[in-house]
Amino acid sequence: MGKYLFSVVVPVYNAERYLRETLHSIDCLQGSFSVLFVDDGSSDASVQILREYCKTRDNARLIEKPHGGVSAARNCGLAAADGEYVLFLDADDAYEGAVFEVLEGKIRQNEADIVVFGAKVKNYSKDFTLEDIEPRDYTYYRFEPDILFREKGSKPFIWNCAYKRDFLCRNGIRFEETLALGEDLAFQFWAFPCAETVRFIPDKLYCYHYLRYASAMCDFLKEHRLRMEKHLALISVLIARVYSLENLQKCSREFWLWLLDFFYDDYRRLDAKDLKDISAGFSEVLKKNAIKISKLPIPLRKKLCYFGMAKPFLVRMRLLKRKILHMKIKEH
């Protein structure tokens, strides 16, 4: 066991405009914790700010590395962490109140592999908003599908969880560095099925700044095709994981129903060319993972939605239907 009960990994990339605010919030915390900052090749003043900060704090350490993305930065911090539990803090967010005192009290009750807590969300965009994360108070002593598919807080974020470090190391759980979007989801779909004990608590211990200084991210959220391309890569990873982890194999029905909700709404919003391209990409993902839609353990009407996304003939029929509808509208 290390010197501290908690290790907090903070990936940092060009975060100088809000980094000092986050550092101030860390200084206000109490408890047995260390902070591992991983500068991911920042080109602004972030690394200088972190160097000065770490010089005067015994529980703070800075790791500098070439730019490789948030997953690589988190993996670097995870490898260097020595606390009994590991948490992940984004460089523009903050913890709320007595986070470590609360977590220590919950941990001592059942030594959970993962503790999931609540979060307050500060929205900065009128177009895209999120609600506060409010889990219920409940403990699972074995993996059940409800953990991933019904409980609030288990996805899509990782910053509202505390993970037992030995549990992560024992199972070789890391972030998927090939993903440019959805790396948190991929991590959760690996961690939760491997956990023996998962504790959900309602305490809101994290403050998430959603889309602060992120006009580029807002633009990205509006770009359905780009987001769908990134989601195809994520889906390929998730499907492979579902069929490689024994506990996830048992809930393949829940997974395919969830995946349809996750993917289908954006798919329907694509224009003609993008619809055809994404359909071809989705078909390739299924082929790569040897998935036959007819064999999926879901209702027929749900299978038809998947067929509609994966079969070129059905896509062409949908495009023709759109064209005819558009022509009728112009006639009127």
Descriptive account of the structure:
This protein has helices at residues 16-27, 46-55, 70-80, 99-110, 145-149, 165-170, 183-194, 215-222, 224-242, 246-249, 252-268, 272-288, 300-310, 312-331; strands at residues 6-12, 33-40, 60-65, 85-88, 94-95, 114-123, 138-140, 161-164, 198-210. It is of the alpha/beta class and 332 residues long. Strand 1 (6-12), helix 1 and strand 2 (33-40) form a beta-alpha-beta unit. The radius of gyration is 22 Å and the shape is globular. It starts with 5 loop residues before the first strand and ends with a helix. The mean pLDDT is 90.
SSE layout and pairing:
Blueprint: E1 6-12, H1 16-27, E2 33-40, H2 46-55, E3 60-65, H3 70-80, E4 85-88, E5 94-95, H4 99-110, E6 114-123, E7 138-140, H5 145-149, E8 161-164, H6 165-170, H7 183-194, E9 198-210, H8 215-222, H9 224-242, H10 246-249, H11 252-268, H12 272-288, H13 300-310, H14 312-331
Parallel strand pairs: 1-2, 1-4, 2-3, 6-9
Antiparallel strand pairs: 4-8, 5-9, 6-8, 7-9
Which keywords apply here?
332 residues, alpha/beta, 9 strands, globular
